Amino acid sequence: MTIPWRDVFPAMTTQFRRDESLDLDATGRHIERMIASGASGIVMLGSLGENATLAPEEKRRVVAAAIEAAAGRVPVIATVVETGTAAAKQFARDMERLGADGLMLLPAMIYRADPRETMLHYRDVARATQLPIICYNNPLAYHVDITPAMFAELAEVPNLVAIKESSGDVRRLTDLRNAVGDRYVLFAGVDDLALESAVLGADGWIAGIGLAFPEENQRLWDLAVAREIEAALPLYRWFTPLAHLDTHVKFVQYIKLAVQEAGLGAEWVRAPRRVLVHEERRRILKVIHAGLEGRPKLPKARKPRPRAR
């Protein structure tokens, strides 16, 4: 499938049952809702997908279920999160054989690679597959920063095609454009910088809290890229308290709870994560319920994409 590198690619959760077993049917239903809202692609097994808590075979089952649910309507991007380069290369090959349309590649986990090691990791994994790759830069979470200068060096690798920019510094988007021009597709990766990122030229948004508010998430992005800022601002101000839930260490629990309260899934997470309790749960529910109660009225939704035959 030719990937439309633009607009909203939600970072899907992996849905679990209360006993922490995979709930692939629930994951598929959520994917269906995101496609119906207008998503241009789906990203599986990212941070929100609790990749690190899944066994290798479970990861393959999740991606296979996503491919089946998407049914050729939107591309399925599988995230590569491993502790070593060899394992990342093998997983990339596995995802290509399975039928994923693209990959999102993170630095190797645990070890804090220096710039030379980081770029070798990205080059080595890219050589292991023909699939196009989104490079995920999130130094706040993973303590490895892929700078604009590093991306300029990596520009010679043809299947490194996009960047999910999650440094938390919106100035990076302009620095990247100045360093590499239009060589890479740029995705906003932080929910509460989405409008700012669009104004500065991001091509798309790998979104989190939009999993609970898919139509509003899509509408916000559509207005932002159309530069209809006056119309986007009231929607963004309503959205921002929810978007802040994406920037906390417990963002998985927060967003899964929002998904549950919106009736689109369940909050169950896999240990060592635990569902929220006590005052923290009450505080986060207050934010979520305020968002649900204050949902703005939107224009009629887009027509759903037909399933592939």
For the structure shown, list the relevant keywords.
alpha/beta; TIM Barrel; eight-stranded parallel sheet; 12 helices; globular
What does this structure look like?
The chain has an 8-stranded parallel beta sheet with strand order 1-8-7-6-5-4-3-2. Helix 1 (24-37) packs across helix 2, helix 3 packs parallel to helix 4 and helix 6 (148-154) packs parallel to helix 7. It has one domain: Aldolase class I (TIM Barrel), CATH 3.20.20.70. The radius of gyration is 18 Å and the shape is globular. Helix content is 44%, strand content 10%. The chain starts with 6 loop residues before the first strand and ends in a 16-residue tail after the last helix. It is built from 12 helices and 8 strands. It has 309 residues and is an alpha/beta fold.
CATH topology: TIM Barrel
Strand ordering within the main sheet: 1-8-7-6-5-4-3-2
Compressed to H and E, one letter per element, the order equals EHEHEHEHEHHEHEHEHHHH
Distance between the termini: 14 Å
- What is the CATH class name? Alpha Beta
The CATH architecture designation is Alpha-Beta Barrel
- The coarse overall form would be globular
Total DSSP E strands: 8
What is the mean pLDDT?
96
Offer a quick outline of the entry.
The chain has 309 residues and is of the alpha/beta class. Helix content is 44%, strand content 10%. The mean pLDDT is 96.
